[in-house]
Design goal:
5-stranded parallel beta sheet; EC 1.18.1.2; binds flavin-adenine dinucleotide; alpha/beta; oxidoreductase; Ferredoxin-NADP_redctase_2; flavin adenine dinucleotide binding; NADP
Length: 342
């Protein structure tokens, strides 16, 4: 069993708004742990538009999605945020002592007086194979992510997809697998040119196979796959022997387990008041794209403002007997110490 982590604040979502919360909480002396489904930080900025410029971050005339995320990480660094990636926040209950207990899909347990839902448009989850009966193979011979590379050692592996994830994993796993076939519906790839070139070289040398076509069926008994049916451009179906399939068909966003936590929802968004962005459940706050209130704008700058205000009230749950003194970062020696610039 994993250790139970006790902290001041558990943040669900490591998007830009969750990341900035670490900074605002840190100034008030509060420690944070963050949970995200993705295997990286940055939410929509990192996943959907890492190379596109953003023009409306105050005082930053232009920066890309990934640059914003990198800078938020640098800004949060003095406060040592702890990240728990590749796992979904699943279960949230209130303990008898008034704190919350949050459990993730990987079984990690947190206890904290404050929970912050910065879940954006919901969890990024993989798009699954739209084939009847595919569920039966999932986790044993059908996978949508790589948790452990060893899972694929010595197997006849098919990697499906034409983006960076598919190409990166095909390149990383081919030395481990007994055989590796990349399957994509057309002979064009949306991945880094360098990866595409490496893949082409491996195919030319016979170290990897490339099949152009669409997966139309899975063959095998129960959870063990024996072959994958593939329809080629001419409409002909071939059966390709395989005992592992790794499919990368992109990600979609869904509200997920949050929907069942009894927080007041309105059209899949969490309703909050605008003084402290607290939900209907005292001690659970929500900020960023996941919330709704009169006048809400789904902008990063609004999420930053919500984070700052939220932390003021969150402090009271963490330190009920202490008074919070308002301070500027420019002139407070106490804040300078916390920031490590004293
Ligand atoms: P997100 O960035 O959505 O991050 C939420 C994170 O929470 C995700 O990583 C998700 O996996 C995780 N999560 C959710 N539920 C769970 C769970 N149960 N367990 C674990 N993890 C969970 N905004 C601007 O201000 N300016 C722009 O120019 C701009 N351009 C944009 C361009 C595009 C193409 C898109 C798609 C959006 C743009 N936006 C822009 C909007 C901006 O990206 C969002 O407002 C911002 O990302 C919201 O941040 P967030 O932290 O609230 O949520």
């Amino acid at each position: 069993a994993r250790l139970v982590i006790e902290t001041d604040m558990v943040i669900i979502g490591a998007g830009p708004v969750g990341l900035f919360t670490v900074f605002e909480a840190g100034l008030l002396g509060l420690r944070c742990h963050l949970v995200d489904n993705l295997d990286k930080v940055g939410g929509q900025c990192a996943e959907l538009y890492p190379e596109k410029p953003i023009y409306d971050i105050p005082a930053i005339p232009s920066c890309t999605g990934q640059e914003l995320v990198d800078n938020l990480m640098r800004q949060a660094e003095p406060f040592g945020p702890q990240f728990h990636l590749g796992q979904q926040a699943e279960k949230l209950v209130r303990l008898e002592d008034g704190r919350f207990e949050l459990t993730t899909s990987e079984g990690q347990v947190f206890r904290a007086p404050v929970v912050v839902v910065a879940a954006g448009a919901g969890s990024f989850v993989p798009r699954k194979l739209p084939l009847p009966g595919a569920d039966a193979f999932e986790g044993t011979s059908l996978f949508y992510a790589v948790r452990r590379m060893e899972t694929f050692r010595g197997r006849d592996l098919i990697v499906a997809g034409g983006g960076d994830s598919a190409l990166d994993w095909a390149l990383n796993l081919h030395p481990l697998a007994k055989s590796l076939t990349l399957v994509h519906r057309r002979d064009e790839f949306r991945a880094a040119p360098d990866s595409v070139q490496k893949m082409r070289e491996l195919v030319a040398s016979g170290a990897m196979k490339l099949v152009i076509g669409q997966i139309t069926g899975l063959e095998g008994e129960g959870p063990m796959l024996s072959a994958v049916a593939i329809k080629d451009a001419a409409g002909e179906v071939v059966s390709l022997p395989a005992n592992a399939l790794l499919a990368f068909y992109g990600l979609k966003m869904e509200l997920g387990p949050l929907a069942s936590w009894g927080l007041g929802l309105e059209r899949n968004l969490i309703k909050v008041e605008t003084e402290a962005f607290e939900t209907s459940e005292p001690g659970i706050f929500a900020i960023g794209d996941i919330i709704t209130y009169p006048g809400k704008l789904k902008l990063i700058l609004s999420g930053f403002h919500e984070a700052a205000l939220m932390c003021q009230k969150a402090f009271k749950y963490c330190h009920p007997d202490e008074k919070l003194v308002f301070r500027y970062t420019t002139s407070s020696t106490d804040l300078h110490k916390k920031l490590g610039v004293a």
